[in-house]
Amino acid sequence: MELAQVRLLVSDFTACYRFYADVLGLKPQSGATGGPYEKFSPHTGSAGIALQDRSMMAEVLAELGDTATGHRSLVVLRVDDLDAYCAGITARGAALLHGPAPMTDRMRVAHLKDPEGNLVELQEWLLLRG
């Protein structure tokens, strides 16, 4: 078994596309800015995040037609230099909810939300520094 991706069901596809591509700096697979689907990849690693228009999935699973409420996901991205990455994304329009700050003695984190309210955690693994 292999994890192919984490897929987020979104209502405002264009705003979420911009957030993951332009603000977080992930690489889109096809450039489908209007949806209904796009996969994003970091510059390293094999994991990916995909966006899918919620209304498209509601055609398959009717319960998804209801308005999404509450925190339904947490996307976690590892970065090498948390302070520099946070400075870059805030300059591009991101609003940090928390951090950068220590989470444990091994990790520093920062948290923000995408345009749909999905939580994003940015991690800097201190043990990898050496």
UniProtKB/TrEMBL annotation:
It holds the Pfam family Glyoxalase. The keyword Acetylation does not apply. Residues 2-125 form the VOC domain. InterPro entries: Glyas_Bleomycin-R_OHBP_Dase, Glyas_Fos-R_dOase_dom, MMCE/EMCE_epimerase, VOC_core. The keyword Protein biosynthesis does not apply. This is VOC family protein. It comes from the Bacteria. Keywords: Metal-binding. PANTHER family: METHYLMALONYL-COA EPIMERASE (PTHR43048), RING-CLEAVING DIOXYGENASE-RELATED (PTHR43048:SF4).
